[in-house]
Design brief:
By secondary structure, the chain is an alpha+beta fold. Helices cover 30% and strands 31% of the residues. Strands 1, 2, 3, 4, 5, 6 and 7 form a seven-stranded mixed β-sheet that branches. The protein is globular, with a radius of gyration of 17 Å.
């Protein structure tokens, strides 16, 4: 199997196989399985984290934090991936589900016991068959509403907050 490098593009067959391993690693909740699919110098931006993560130790901290708050977090693909024609990049859409069963600490939010469902997208850049740059985007306000931490859109509470 060919590996994606900076000098080449990503083909659909390689990407589908990689994304299968990517989803399985995330759904395993085993940090090493996720980290082995990233370069050592990974640069990772996630809507759920306040700063850009650089390197595997920073990502490991994020994974521990995430799975502590959402121990049953699971992802499934939505449709097929999009492959860039001009470099080793791709985008993939997904759906996530979980129960907020543990604390989000920091900032100190206790478990609400509420189920969340959300959709988002991954944007990957590959080097040597691994993710070298990762951006994950989804609606954090929607998650806050689902957990009961933010008021419903258009509600009196939302208007008061604004």
């Amino acid at each position: 199997m060919a590996q994606a490098t900076e000098a080449q593009t990503v083909d659909t067959a390689w990407l589908e196989e990689f994304l299968g391993r990517w989803a399985a690693a995330w759904n395993s909740h085993e940090p090493e399985r996720v980290l082995e699919l990233m370069t050592d110098d990974i640069v990772y931006d996630d809507s759920a984290w306040p700063e850009t993560m650089r390197g595997k130790p920073a990502v490991r901290e994020f994974l521990d934090y995430t799975w502590r708050a959402f121990p049953d977090l699971a992802f499934e693909p939505v449709g097929g991936p999009l492959v860039a024609s001009d470099g080793p990049r791709a985008a993939a859409w997904w759906r996530g589900t979980a129960i907020h069963a543990g604390p989000i600490d920091p900032p100190g939010i206790p478990a609400t016991g509420r189920r969340i469902e959300f959709e988002g997208a991954d944007f990957h850049e590959y080097r040597d068959g691994k993710v070298a740059r990762l951006r994950i985007v989804f609606d954090m306000s929607d998650l806050g509403r689902q957990m009961g931490l933010l008021p419903a859109p258009g509600s009196a509470a939302e208007r008061a907050m604004v």
